[in-house]
Amino acid sequence: MTIKFPWKSFALALIMAALPQLAQAARIKDIAAFDGVRENQLIGYGLVVGLNGSGDTDQTRFPVQSLVGALERMGVTVNRTEITVKNIAAVMVTAQLPPFAKQGNRLDVLVSSVGDSKSLAGGTLMMAPLKGADGQVYAVAQGAILTNSFSYGGQASSAMKNHPTAGTVPGGALIERELPNVLAGKKLLTLNLHQSDFTTAARVASAINERFKGEVASLTDPGSVQIAVPEPYQHRIVEFVAVLERLDVNPDVTARVVMNERTGTIVMGENVRISTVAVSHGNLTVLVKETPKVSQPAPLSTGTTTVVPRTDLKVAEEKVNISLLREGANLGEVVRGLNTLGVTPRDLLGIMQAIKAAGALNADLSVM
């Protein structure tokens, strides 16, 4: 069996890693977020109608119960036992409510079948209330479902494209309840970093204090920065936050090597360093080939047919030199030193793990 590695992706990863890295500043809005300013998840139960015979079957009873309830609310009295339909499907409706969303704004919703429906293509979602974690209704969803798929078939064969039992309703949810303004009247703001780091937090606080010429920002832990709203911005919180978000900070990154054995991809961070270590790597190839020989007796003889086993064994070991990686080598030197060994991606995975086990790799090693 021949194992093929994605050499293009491997080479691209090494080339990008070997290029000289420049410290690039990032905006505060890209590396942190203010406490309380986040999205909220909404969920609801709904009914999809108008399906072309691809809805839930009689084995799924709750869609019919939902249809009976909907008809009764519209003034139509029906008997549950007299209804047999195949063009409806029960679905779960989910959406993300962004911060500071206002009444009348629209949201995209995701519709997913919860019964045994074969397809939601061509269906229409009936009015479905969407609730938050507190049980309050924040939006109402309704509209035509887009699945970008199809599913057709008969008794002997079928054809399907993409995933027909889940779809979206673009702009299908109408916001009915607003979230409270978490910034109004606040004199102290908390800025939470996406990745906790002592150095990055200190740089953020320093950049803020330098911009506003005072001790505006203070640190309590490596994951957050406490910011006191200056007096000129007490009644202009939005403007103050806008100024903060535009400040540039150079975030610190942990030295890390990420390896994926399935794809052969290896990514090394800029700050990866190694201690002095000598690496030698050679491949041992063992070829075992079975070529049995059949011994056939002469016709009308008393002998028996026998199989004589024959095994061809070949052993080959590559001769390689020892590569010396000196202490304090940067990422480019590490890559060049390993390339002199002529290793494959799978071999490089083992080498990096051995260097880490020897205590010579000054970085985190993550294997996916």
General description of the model:
It is a single chain. The protein is built from seven helices and 25 strands. It is an alpha+beta fold and 368 residues long. The chain has three domains: 7-20 and 256-291 and 305-367, no CATH class; 28-36 and 182-249, Gyrase A, domain 2 (2-Layer Sandwich), CATH 3.30.1360; 40-175, no CATH class. β15 and β16 (265-268) form a beta hairpin. The longest helix is centred in the middle third of the chain and has 15 residues, at 198-212. The two termini are 24 Å apart. The model is unreliable at 1-23 (pLDDT under 50).
Produce the secondary structure layout.
Elements (H helix, E strand, L loop, with lengths): L6 H12 L7 E2 H4 E3 L5 E10 L12 H12 L14 E10 L8 E8 L10 E8 L5 E8 L5 E4 L4 E4 L4 E10 L12 E6 L4 H15 L4 E5 L2 E5 L8 H9 L2 E2 L6 E5 L4 E4 L4 E2 L2 E3 L4 E7 L2 E3 L10 E3 L2 E7 L5 E3 L5 H9 L5 H13 L3 E2 L1 E4 L1
Q: What structural keywords apply?
A:
single chain; 368 residues; alpha+beta; Gyrase A, domain 2; 3 domains; six-stranded antiparallel barrel; four-stranded antiparallel sheet; 7 helices; flat; disordered N terminus
The structural domain count equals: 3
Strand order of the largest sheet: 3-4-5-10-7-6
Specify the number of helices. Answer: 7
Radius of gyration: 33 Å
- What low-confidence regions span 5 or more consecutive residues with pLDDT below 50? 1-23
**First-last Cα distance:** 24 Å
Helix content: 10-25%
Major beta-sheet overview: 6 strands, antiparallel, barrel
Determine the strand fraction and express it as a percent band. 25-35%
Average pLDDT number = 80
State the total count of DSSP E strands: 25
So what's the overall shape?
A: flat
Class of secondary structure makeup: alpha+beta
